[in-house]
Input
Amino acid sequence: MALIGVQDLFYAVGGVTLFDGISFQIDEGERLCILGRNGAGKSTLLKLLSGVVTPDRGVISRRQGLRLAMLDQEVPTDAKGSALEVALPQLTGTEDEWEIQHRAQVHLTKLGIDPDADFGTLSGGSRRRVLLAKALASSPELLLLDEPTNHLDIESIQYLEETLAQHRAAVVFVTHDRVFARKLARRVAEVDRGRFYAFTCGYDDFLSRREELLANEDQKWAEFQKKLTQEEAWLRRGVKARLSRNEGRVKALLKLRETWNQRRKRTGGAKFEIQTSERSGDLVCEVKKVSFGWGERTLLRDFSTSIMRGDRVGVIGPNGSGKTTLLNVLLGKLTPQSGSVRLGTALLPLYFDQLRSQLDPTKSVAENVGGGYDTIEFNGKPLHLLGYLEKFLFAPDRSRVPVSILSGGERNRLLLAKLFTRPSNLLVLDEPTNDLDSDTLDLLEDLLLEYDGTILLVSHDRDFLDNVVTSTLYLAGDGVVLENAGGWSDWAAHQARQKTEEPEVPVTRPPQQTPGAKARKLSFSERRELEGFPDRLAGLEKEQERLQNELADPLFYKSRASEVPVYKARLEEIEAETERLYQRWQDLEELAAQVESS
Output
């Protein structure tokens, strides 16, 4: 059954048409990944679906009473209270307050947020994680997620993947994280030039199908270009457009030109280049027994490593573990509290920073890169600034706008454009993939693979790490840094092997209360919880029976085949929830019995 139906949707911003008569629907249990270039309208589409933005024309119909939750890229600044208070959704009347509060607390903790933290003092990334916890805790029928993996560490992303995989809600998400898309998407749609191209398949199958479509399109466009060339030649022969018998043909030619212009817009992509300087010495950085921390918190303890010319080192670890601090220590920007850091000779580093502090938001795109000049020097030759910026997908008119109005992806591209005007032999990249579309990510990967210097990279993008780095440094906490050869997948496999080789730690059970010891009384909420177990379990049993009856009907597989995986997933959820409730019931009954006997 459709949760949302979209018919003949038109929407434009600033004279640019984002959606030109698109139609589609979102069904129960949907797992739809929306892809497209930066500025194509992906975030706008989610806002249209949620009702935050109204279409210029067309109809968006939502099922009556639809429970919808959305994670936006924009973080509100007016929310007050603790992280838990902000994360608590409005009560729906179908669940008790304890259940919702428990879910919100679990999600906050798993996403690395202290539930008691003051929301107003949190960073933008932490606030966004609070809002993600709120969306997950609200038990919606439809989740709309705009770049949900931004500002999450890899462990949090994996938790989100597991949570969404078990979630019964339909999920529509925009992401640049290819592993995330690969694990969750059952349908993939691309937003391109006002159109919405949907494929019922996973992410990898989508890439293959798109390549086939583009190959067929290339053949058609070759035939189109031949016709366009013939018509242009006809016009150059001096045929007068004012003759009535030729007016139609001239108009058709103008239409051909406009169509060809649209083709150019589709195929035009970022074309990164980077200047390389003279090679550095063999040694880039030697670290011996370095310790560093802030206050009483130790981030590095007796850490030693050597980085040689040509190494590509990925830095990974939980949020707040000190990844950016480690980069600054390696570069000599922070002095260690003990130990030594020796930098190599002839180093020319370029630093892509996580806070984008190298951009002046009050200046235009062109001013940020060219410093007021119309040309730049690139590999020893003068290059026109606007032509250089077009390689990073900034059209001349876009090059004149202030940085303050750019999207996150555009700011990242601009910072790359600014950095790559300078020669270097050491690239230091702190979260460079945030908000970049998949095409730009692929091009950046190719550029880094061709780069002749050394790379230090902080990223939560597992695919990007696998494709770029040759070794990883993992900040495990309490000052421990673990080094491993290969990318993220190699690190994960290494950790899995370590766990299987570790001896099993015996479970320590709490000691039984000694006779005469006074047992803790049940709290008011625990007494209410204890009284509610029969009804909650009866409700789950009733739902389980209904789903099993549906799945036992052969007609169900013919008429509603797409819902079969959703029903089966929900049955697994019910089984796990039933087991959890019985265990909790038993624990509280035992506690109550101890109170009575004491």
About this structure: Residues 283-348+423-500 form a domain with the Rossmann fold fold (CATH 3.40.50.300). The two ends are 55 Å apart (CA to CA). The chain has four domains: 2-206, 207-267, 283-348+423-500, 524-597.
